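TA notes, week 10

Several of you asked for a full example with nothing omitted. So below is the full record: structure tokens for the whole chain, then the designed sequence directly under it. When grading your own attempts, check the secondary structure regions first.
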């Protein structure tokens, strides 16, 4: 039976704010790498910085996720990749929804002036 996993802030941001984008028009990117405990961790390579988003190098993203502890742990890399693909599918659905399209049309790409985000 699969483990129950709570959604991390970086995963919620992508679903709740599909209008937030990097300059390259990306909202969320993730990687799966081995954690120090031998398990596999799914973590973001795009982080919220102030009102916008920043794409990090793989090395910097890994170091930051270890510091924050905001990775999602899996037993195998295959499980992590499958979860990443499922999240990407959900993000696509959120962005394609009428609300996602409306929000994207109302907010400049990569910027929300009403809040600062640090996920």
């Amino acid at each position: 039976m699969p483990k129950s996993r709570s959604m991390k802030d970086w995963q919620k941001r992508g679903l709740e704010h599909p209008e937030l984008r990097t300059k390259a028009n990306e909202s969320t990117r993730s990687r799966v790498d081995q954690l120090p405990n031998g398990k596999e961790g799914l973590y973001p390579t795009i982080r919220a910085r102030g009102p916008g988003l920043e794409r990090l190098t793989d090395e910097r993203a890994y170091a930051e996720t270890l510091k924050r502890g905001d990775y999602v742990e899996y037993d195998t890399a295959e499980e992590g990749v499958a979860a990443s693909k499922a999240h990407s599918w959900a993000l696509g659905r959120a962005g394609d929804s009428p609300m996602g399209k409306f929000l994207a049309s109302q907010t400049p790409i990569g910027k929300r002036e009403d809040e600062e985000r640090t996920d």
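The chain is about 40% helix and 20% strand. Use that as a sanity check on your answer.
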